[in-house]
Amino acid sequence: MRNSEAEKGAGPVQSVDRAISVLELLAREGEAGITEIATELGVHKSTASRLVGALEARNLVEQLGPRGKYAIGFGIVRLAGSAMGRLDLARLGHDACSALADTLGETVNIAVSDDGVAINVSQAFGAASVTARNWTGRRTPLHATSSGKVLLAYLPESVRESLLGRPLERYTAHTTVEAGSLRAELDRIRRDGYAASFEELEVGMHAIAVPVFGADGRAIAAMSASGPAYRFPRERVPRLVTQLTDAAAELSSQLGHFPR
Length: 260
Fold this sequence. Notes:
The protein is α+β, with helices and mostly antiparallel strands. The protein folds into 2 domains: 4-72, Arc Repressor Mutant, subunit A; 80-254, Beta-Lactamase. The chain has 9 helices and 8 strands. The protein has helices spanning 4-8, 12-29, 34-41, 45-57, 74-104, 146-153, 157-164, 179-192, 237-254; strands at 61-63, 70-72, 107-114, 117-124, 139-141, 195-198, 205-213, 219-228. The strands form 2 sheets. Strands 5-4-3-8-7-6 form a 6-stranded antiparallel sheet. β3 and β4 (117-124) form a beta hairpin. α5 runs antiparallel to α9 and α6 (146-153) crosses α8 (179-192). The longest helix has 31 residues, at 74-104.
């Protein structure tokens, strides 16, 4: 489409499609100028310039010198690193879960946040948990699980508040369903670095979780250990937190996280 009327009518979806085409062109050719980009897209140079300007503002493309051509920017590397981090988490997380499960003799899980719930992406059973349920792939509530509370605590505030504004389902008599009480607990989790769930999702089940950090310093997952209440008394929490924190720190370092 080369006529200005067609370009004026370009909606958000078409703009996104064109922006992606710019990135694909630069990935394929290495670099390109505005004229080349406009020709590739079949748009006026002014339209190509606006698209490139928007991408440049997000560091997705960069100009190679004054009035030079454009190339893929480091923002793409950041996005790619995030995607690779998820892939590495599934691969490396399995080994981390297995090692800690062997040490603790209990079930160890790694969960990530997805659309307001926690999804367990890796699990290993310890010798004492041979009859434990397989949680891999299950979606569990953020507010009623130790992993979920860790993930909730480290979400951006605006996202966290949006989730806390929804009704919180009660699963047992111990489930926290009052937003103010949950906020106070999330503050404590960020301060102390771990979350606990004592029969909040299932009667007779206790769990402890800590955050796993990615290369950009964000908490991208939670590592938890769980077991029946009689094997997970509250007195065991400090030792479990230490063991979980050490294992999560090792996994975080493998994912490229280096504490400052």
